[in-house]
Write a structure and sequence with these properties.
The complex is a heterodimer.
Chain A lengths: L9 E5 L4 E6 L7 E7 L6 E7 L4 E3 L3 E6 L4 E6 L8 E10 L4 E5 L3 E6 L1
Chain B lengths: L4 E3 L2 E4 L5 E6 L6 E7 L6 E7 L2 E4 L8 E4 L6 E5 L8 E8 L9 E2 L3 E5 L1
Parallel strand pairs in B: 2-11
Antiparallel strand pairs in B: 1-3, 3-8, 4-5, 4-9, 5-6, 7-8, 9-10, 9-11
The chains are: A mainly beta, B mainly beta.
Chain lengths: 114, 115
């Protein structure tokens, strides 16, 4: 299938291990941070989000950590599975009245090895 | 709940031709976005609609790109004339009205190749 992100940073993880994907953001005014997963040939798929007044949020097998002091966001995936192989993007969201504006970071390709 | 729908999924045209993409957002989502995603990069916002009004089109190359959302639901994005550098995936996204989180939900995209 078509590749998304031929020259992206790549993280290789063995099946069953935990994955940590990092992201630096730039805008202190961002009020939400979102992680998206993008598989080859598909649009970005929402994984998890976190408000700027939180420092941790957990979902099913995923945890997002937010460190506003150093403007750093991370996505932790527990017990990584082959289906987790994809490009992961962080996005910062800033309110624009009745909606939001997303700014995407550089993606990270996650490769899960058997 | 049905997701964001886009068509066509693929399009190949020659430079200087015109092309149009269609998007149907998630029902009830007032805000609709068009993004351009060049291979290897994150999506870049082209235009944002709130109902049928434009909120932000600062990144839209208005000499060749146009978009409309006449009845506040479906939207079309047009490129005329296309250039080689327009080859990309064009993503449509929608978001629910506030109060809500900052999340936008994306469609599968239209892959455009300009030859």
């Amino acid at each position: 299938g078509e590749s998304v992100g031929l020259h992206l940073p790549t993280l290789s993880v063995q099946e069953g291990d935990n994955s940590i994907i990092n992201c630096a953001y730039s805008n202190s005014a961002s009020d939400y941070f979102i992680w998206y997963k993008q598989e080859s040939g598909k649009g970005p798929q929402f994984i998890i989000d976190i408000r700027s007044n939180m420092d941790k949020r957990q979902g099913q097998r995923v945890t997002v950590l937010l460190n506003k002091t150093v403007k750093h966001l991370s996505l932790q995936i527990a017990a990584t599975q082959p289906g987790d192989s994809a490009v992961y993007f962080c996005a910062e969201s800033r309110s624009t009245g009745t909606a939001s504006k997303l700014t995407f970071g550089t993606g990270t390709r996650l490769q899960v090895t058997l | 709940e049905a997701g964001v729908a886009q068509s066509p999924r693929y399009k190949i045209i020659e430079k200087r031709q015109s092309v149009a993409f269609w998007c149907n957002p998630i029902s009830g989502h007032a805000t609709l976005y068009w993004y351009q995603q060049i291979l290897g990069q994150g999506p870049k916002l082209l235009i944002q609609f709130q109902n049928n009004g434009v909120v932000d089109d600062s990144q839209l190359p208005k000499d060749r790109f146009s978009a409309e959302r006449l009845k506040g639901v479906d939207s079309t994005l047009k490129i005329q004339p296309a250039k080689l550098e327009d080859s990309a995936v064009y993503l449509c996204a929608s978001s629910p009205p506030r109060p809500w989180g900052g999340t936008q939900y994306f469609g599968p995209g239209t892959r455009l190749l300009v030859l």
